[in-house]
Model the fold of this input.
Amino acid sequence: MRLTVPGLIVCGLLSAAAAAHDAAPDHGCREPVRPADDQNDVLWQRFLDDVDAYRACISDFVDASQAAAAAHGEAARAATGDWNAFVRRELNVPEDYPWPPEGADG
Done:
């Protein structure tokens, strides 16, 4: 198989796009360590406070992650809208044109 210069450019762009996705972030919250059952009330209260802080940290992370996911979803919908508008405007494809074409699903 022989690759041409345009083929190499396409391969390079595809690999760059694949590498552009960041790994999912770690929540970074510290799980509290449960004290032994025979510990005093001060240690137990500190543990319960740490449990509350851990829950709040996880909740904040989940809220931020869900907001980011919603923003990405909205960006994807906007990009799809841009594509559809381009196709209708520049390629004169009617809005009700069936896509994918019937029988194209394999």
